[in-house]
């Protein structure tokens, strides 16, 4: 599942947790729902798809970086992929480091320039 698909999915609802849930809450919710939806535990043919949805939600929400990116995508887009009204336009502290971005770009330009010559 790509980042573009994140705007259309509500992983918090899939796991049955609130957006401010802790990591322990997410793990507990995943394990509880995975036991009930596992294809080997049920005879339901749709259990495989539900289990894959749970696994995808857990993979995104259990990693702090991926969860932060997912929350950012949810804030900046609506379900149809358009820019949502919830986006305030404020930049996060990680993006307010122009020195590092400029320094990185300078190194990339130097390496590419050396390679081209």
What does this entry look like structurally?
The protein is an all-alpha fold and 117 residues long. The protein has helices at residues 3-6, 11-15, 23-37, 47-62, 64-76, 98-116. The protein is elongated. The termini are far apart. The model is unreliable at 83-93 and 95-100 (pLDDT under 50).
Main sheet: strands, sense, barrel: none
| Spatial separation of the terminal alpha carbons | 40 Å
| Helix and strand composition category | mainly alpha
Shape designation: elongated
Uncertain segments are 83-93, 95-100
Q: Radius of gyration, Cα only, in angstroms?
A: 20 Å
Query: Number of DSSP strands?
Result: 0
Count of alpha/pi helices: 6
Mean pLDDT: 77
One letter per element, helices H and strands E, the order comes to HHHHHH
Strand content: under 5%
Helix content: 55-70%
Secondary-structure blueprint:
Blueprint lengths: L2 H4 L4 H5 L7 H15 L9 H16 L1 H13 L21 H19 L1
Helix pairs in contact: 3-4, 4-5
Summarize this entry quickly.
With 117 residues, this protein is an all-alpha fold.
Features:
117 residues, mainly alpha, 6 helices, 0% strand
């Amino acid at each position: 599942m790509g980042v573009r698909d994140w705007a259309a999915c509500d992983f918090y609802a899939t796991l049955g947790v609130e957006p401010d849930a802790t990591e322990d809450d997410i793990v507990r919710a995943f394990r509880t729902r995975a036991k009930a939806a596992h294809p080997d535990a049920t005879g339901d043919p749709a259990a495989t798809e539900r289990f894959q949805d749970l696994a995808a939600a857990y993979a995104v929400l259990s990693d702090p970086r991926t969860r932060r990116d997912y929350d950012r995508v949810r804030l900046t887009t609506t379900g149809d992929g358009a820019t949502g009204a919830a986006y305030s336009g404020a930049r996060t502290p990680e993006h307010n480091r122009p020195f590092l971005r400029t320094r990185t770009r300078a190194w990339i330009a130097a390496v590419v320039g050396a390679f081209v010559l």
